[in-house]
Write a structure and sequence with these properties.
The protein is α/β, with parallel strands linked by helices. It has a six-stranded mixed sheet, sandwiched between helices. Strands 18-17-16-15-19 form a five-stranded antiparallel sheet, with no helix packed on it. The protein is built from 18 helices and 23 strands.
């Protein structure tokens, strides 16, 4: 159920921090990436705990695990304040580190300033390979041409691959570089000190963090099992203690596409199953599917099958599948199989499951068949559940003659000469060699001669198998037809039931509609009767002419009063229009004739005569010919009205800083557009846009918007003390 919720379960961020905890417990220093892993795990634990404990549905086991997660908010906050998202140690980690980095910045600026003067001096132009400043061995250097090394005083730190360029540290900055290097050493020492303090802090919470890791691992494993089951459409198998299993339409987990499922059982009516059939028909896949299902169930996982699948718990699962012949160990195919089988014979017990692929293969067919039968008899007499695949026809008769031993086969379509991959229980597989050879074009006289060489007993077995197969096919076909009829009847029954329900619902709707119409008719009749009574009452009362005139007079007065109020709120320009204003500037007051409103010019007219005017909180584009310059409004009774009042409130309320941190680019640019207009109207000369450092996406969006803005004269990143790269300083026109 949790995997189907619209909100994703917050499992991201869990890290295996056990090695970091051991290092911290021993007093070691943790690297920034290890600290970030600890922080990520703490954050994940907090999110998962809140999610599961606040979930509307009840999941006792998961919620019990979530309740054991210990929140260490103090440690989270301390790591967050010291380590950045990219693993850098932040200035906020300590006051000493911040002071050292300020000094480093000062020295770097001084060195760059000194080098700038050198590389841009006229005397140095011919000596330099190019006018740039670079770094070699953590020292600031400049690229000097090889032929001028004797004419320039400095220390050579490196040279280009061709030898034409020398990277020289001028003597005038050697001392400053030395001071900068000392500050770098101090910075590294302070960072090491900070990392050690954080590691010690984590070590003091190691027991709490170990509990969290254990709980998070269990929760993650539970959800992983759920996702795996969802991926292969698994079901929860029924587990029993009786030692038998039944697989219903089981599918190998690794097979994809149009998979033919298998159904089989073992341990109830028979405890040994012998599967025969052609190569590539699915015998080995059936063995592997059984083994995987047993292991999946005993690992607490669902199995890719249908409901009704029942499995048991085995103490041991032994299998001999595949060919492990080895030149180095001098093992043939037969020897490698036999080595495994000998080990299984010595270790298997009553509660074991044994899976054997191609039992007795790789040696003389007569001896191999006899050996395979003997091995199967041994496991069978010991009560060990066994499934074996083979090509030996002798084992088919063994299954017929031995109690609690059953034949099975993988079906082969003789017409198309292809396997169908269907597993048929109770039916031994046929060779089909004669039929296939004949279909492929082998002369019939050769086929007949080969058939005559078979013994009478072998022919009887083949004919018996053919009869059984034919009867099985007929019964399967009849069963499928019966199942089809059963499904059709069930579908028809459901359809009739739905029709009946639909008819009942329709009948009830008709009755409800008739009741509603009757009620409406009664209400309408009652209302009409009341209206007639009221009209009769009004007709019986004669209103005096004086009272009628009085009512008319009062109505006219109310209309006039309302008109006066509207005229005061929306004054109309009286008289003819004045001249078209010339040389309009931002901030001037104008009257917009088409809207009968006063406003303030935001930007000067463009070349097409279009002007941007602010009316209240709205901005409009209008033609210059639609405007008339007016004087500023005079305060009445100590208060301002109209645009003057808006400007006054803007000047009072506007802040010199806009905080966009935490917003996406679209929302941030909407806020920025409104703020720039308000700040300009308020008369601010400069504003500070706080977009934070982060990944730089929001900063780039802000600066792209500011570029070419009609109200902005210039902008720049903040300097030290202003917020650095986290803010942009804007100056208005």
């Amino acid at each position: 159920y949790l995997l189907q919720l619209p909100q994703e379960v917050p499992l991201r961020g869990i890290r295996d921090i056990r090695s970091s905890l051991r290092k911290a417990e021993l007093g070691g220093i943790l690297e920034p990436d290890e600290l970030l892993d600890v922080l990520s795990t703490l954050n994940a634990g907090r999110r998962i705990k809140n999610y599961l404990l606040n979930c509307e549905q009840k999941f006792p086991h998961l919620q019990e695990l979530a309740s054991k997660i210990i929140l260490v908010k103090e440690l989270e906050e301390e790591i967050s304040s010291c380590i950045g998202e990219s693993g850098e140690v932040l200035d906020s980690a300590s006051a000493e580190l911040a002071a050292i980095r300020r000094q480093i910045q000062v020295y770097q600026n001084r060195i760059r300033e000194k080098l700038d003067n050198i590389i841009h001096s006229s005397s140095m132009q011919k000596m330099l390979q190019e006018p740039i400043i670079t770094i070699r061995n953590d020292r600031y250097v400049i690229p000097l041409k090889q032929e001028y090394k004797g004419q320039f005083s400095g220390i050579i730190h490196d040279q280009s691959a061709s030898g034409a360029t020398l990277f020289i540290e001028p003597m005038v900055i050697v001392e400053m570089n030395n001071q900068l290097r000392q500050l770098k050493v101090k910075e590294e020492a302070e960072i090491k000190k900070i990392l050690q303090l954080l590691a010690n802090k984590i070590g003091s919470y190691s027991q709490e963090l170990k509990i969290n890791i254990k709980c998070l691992a269990k929760i993650d494993f539970i959800f992983a099992k759920g996702r795996l089951s969802e991926k292969f459409d698994g079901v929860e198998p029924i587990l029993n203690k009786e030692g038998y299993f039944k697989i219903v339409a089981g599918r190998h987990p690794l097979l994809t596409g149009n998979v033919v499922p298998i159904s089989l059982e073992l341990g109830k009516n028979f405890r040994t199953l012998i599967i025969t059939g052609p190569n590539t028909g699915g015998k080995t896949v059936s063995l592997k599917t059984v083994g995987l299902f047993v292991l999946l169930a005993q690992s607490g996982l669902h199995v890719p099958a249908k409901y009704g699948t029942e499995l048991t718990v085995f103490s041991n699962l032994f299998c001999d599948i595949g060919d492990e012949q080895s030149i180095e160990q001098n093992l043939s195919t037969f020897s490698s199989h036999m080595k495994n089988i000998i080990d299984i014979v010595h270790r298997a017990d009553y509660n074991s499951l044994v899976l054997l692929d191609e039992l007795g293969a790789g040696t003389d067919p007569t001896e191999g068949a006899a050996l395979a039968r003997a091995i199967l008899e041994y496991f069978h007499n010991k009560g060990i559940k066994t499934i074996a695949t083979t090509h030996y026809s002798e084992l088919k008769s063994f299954a017929f003659s031995q109690p609690e031993v059953e034949n099975a086969s993988v079906e082969f379509d003789a017409e198309s000469l292809r396997p169908t991959y269907r597993l048929l229980i109770g039916l031994p597989g046929r060779s089909n060699a004669f039929y296939i050879s004949s279909r492929l074009g082998l002369p019939q006289e050769i086929v007949d001669r080969a058939r005559s060489m078979l013994s009478e007993e072998e022919l009887k077995i083949e004919n018996m198998i053919e009869d059984i197969q034919e009867n099985k096919r007929i019964s399967l076909r009849e069963r499928e037809e019966a199942e089809k009829i059963k499904l059709e009847l069930a579908s028809l029954k459901n359809k009739l039931e739905l029709e009946r329900r639909k008819w009942d619902e329709e009948k009830e709707k008709i009755r409800a509609k008739a009741r509603e119409e009757a009620l409406q008719l009664i209400k309408r009749t009652k209302r009409q009767a009341e209206e007639i009574i009221q009209e009769l009452k009004r007709a019986s009362q004669e209103a005096a002419e004086r009272e009628k005139q009085l009512i008319i007079q009062k109505t006219k007065e109310r209309i006039n009063n309302l008109h006066s109020e509207l005229s005061e709120q929306y004054p109309k320009q009286v008289g003819s229009r004045g001249p078209v204003p010339k040389k309009l500037k931002a901030g001037e007051l104008v009257f917009v004739h088409s809207l009968n409103q006063k406003g303030q010019v935001v930007a000067e007219p463009d070349q097409d005569g279009q002007v941007v005017v602010q009316i209240g909180i709205l901005k409009i584009n209008t033609k210059l010919t639609d405007l008339e310059r007016i004087q500023e409004e005079i305060k009445v009774g100590g208060t301002e009205k109209g645009i003057g009042k808006i400007l006054s409130s803007k000047t009072t309320d506007i802040s010199p800083e806009l905080d966009l941190r935490g917003m996406n680019s679209d929302d941030a640019l909407q806020e920025l557009e409104k703020y720039l207009d308000d700040a300009y109207l308020a008369g601010l000369k400069e504003a500070r846009i706080n977009h934070g450092k982060g990944t730089g996406v929001l900063r780039n969006s802000v600066q792209q918007y500011l570029q070419g803005h009609r109200l902005v004269s210039e902008y720049r990143l903040g300097k030290y003390g202003e917020g650095g790269d986290g803010v942009t300083i804007v100056k208005f026109e």
